Amino acid sequence: MTAAAVPSLALVSGPEEVLVERAVARFVTAAKAAGADVIRVDATGYEPGSLILHASPSLFGGTKCIVVRGLHESPDELQLDLLSLLGGPLDDVSLVVAHGGGMKGKKVIDTLKKLGADVVDCPAIKSDRDKSDFVMKEFARARRKITSDGVRALVEAVGKDVRELAAACAQLVADTEGTIDDAVVDTYHGGKVEASGFRVADAAVAGQAGEALRLLRHAIATGVDPVPIVAVLASQLRQLIKVGAAGRGSSAQLAKTLGMAPWQVDRARRAVAHWSGDGLAVALQAVAAADFEVKGGGRDPVYAVERAILTITRARAGH
Amino acid sequence: MTVWRDLVGQEPTVEVLSHAVRTEGAMTHAWLFTGPPGSGRSTAARAFAAALQCPQGGCGECRECRTALDGSHADVKVVATEGLSIQVRDTRDLVQESALRPSVGRWRVIIIEDADRLTERAADALLKALEEPTPRTVWMLCAPSLEDVIITIRSRSRHIRLRTPPVQAVAELLERRDGVDGPMALHAARAAQSHIGLARRLARDEGARIRRRDVIAMATRIVGVGDAIDAAADLAQIADEESTASTAERDAAERSRLLETLGADPTARTQPPHIRSQLAALEKEQKTRATRHARDMVDRSLVDLMSVYRDALVLRLGSTVDLINPDAMDKVRGLSAVFSAEQLLGCLDAITEARDRINANVPPLLALEAMALQLRVPRDLNH
Question: Can you tell me which residues the record assigns to a coiled coil (chain A) (predicted)?
């Protein structure tokens, strides 16, 4: 973290909390190092006028750094105050504004950008690819090497929450030496796989019984409820049936008529080639039975889902 | 004129109840009315309440009778829920009220129209009041069957069983009370399978008749797997549309009334916290009501669908029982031709299973899909 010169205006925009916190912390440290007073303003409980009060020059001189968090859910008064503050000269005050995305407060953002604010983007980290990139950046910043297998293992183990992922990276950097590969990750996070219902359903629909059951066990062990898993299984099979019955046509057009995303249509098309109509019928009926059992109709919800998965993979093989 | 005039086809029950009104010794403090939906459980309970309040024992004309029948009598409390269940806090209030002496009438009557929707804790809260009643307080509970109420309530109350009224009797009631003409009344009564409320709706609402016809047409339309999924989606959508159409207006009205009561500004973009919490509570209530309504709608469609398979089975077995759908004869014949008796029973089972699953909180669409897949016919019967 470099203690760069304090910019008089900074905009931290994007929904990813971890990155926002880091960016804000960097500015705050820099401001403190420069001897400024740091004043935090919370957008949700904002009292009209207090921003102007904070920004007014102090009797004893000295500089100030005002940090405004959560502009995207701020009341109109705060936005008006910010705009009037930005309209005048800013002496001895630096302003850091965090915005989580969305249209609210757009005028403030535009004004900040026009005035040449330092902009830090904090895009959401959602897909596995984003997470892998994030992990690689983390290690690159700490000047450490990690193999691609290591990245994959780490994302698979603790990738559900970005904050947790960041903490795991920091721990590995602090506790180990040399290149980090999947064996090292395994030492720290071995045996833990954060599986979602989607991964379970993908494996089941692809006919991989063993893989699907393994992922299901992991999902249950990491606190996923059986109910959403069954719901995902049902929706995947439903998509297969819809796409299978729709026949030919471009996937974009099909996506529109079926109310699905084009990539979902393409994926379902690839998968449905291995299925027969009767097989799909048996599979969906098994899921409906499992849903009933999961919601109190049976004694053991996990067993109900397992049985449904086995029926699905068998129905695929039996065509 | 008597209070019993709208309770059709239940002569034995009327006999028992009017005897209890006339004879002090035949009266008891807790009654449990059971019978199939639409047979007139709550009508029976209200009529009984009116007869108890009436100085002439149920003339059907006096003030006491009229107010008791329409539920506005000061000493007749009617409890029904539009949500999914009756909660324990509601029954606790009832128990307190049951301890009071009647104010104007001879009895304090508490009618619980959906005793099957009492949660277990709610039912438990009633037990003491049912067991050691205040003098001159009468409890009347209504449920589809004895198994729908917990055993400790069953053992504390006197059981009155209503039967399915004959189609003819229901048709006569529609003609007499609602002014429906003869053939239509008979058709509606038969199509509704003697469910009085449904028959009335079918007789008077063109939209309901069209919906019923669409549902029945579905039976012969499901050929492939894709058809089954489409049919299930249609069924679920019919229910959804019906339920939002009938509740949206009412929800909005309730919301604006609440805002008015609280003195809030209805045009404000964000309400203050204490009003927001009240609004959230209202929205939650409206949501359970919508869920219940949508489920009821699906259930009604499934009963209609079931009747076609039942008719096909009757035809297949060569039985001489009356058909429910003589107006959809081609579909009934088609089904009985392509399915064996076992397969028809399988279809009926699939529909029953779907109804059970929906009641157990399975998403209606999923339950309907599993059912529709079972109902696939070997070839398209419409061509």
Answer: none
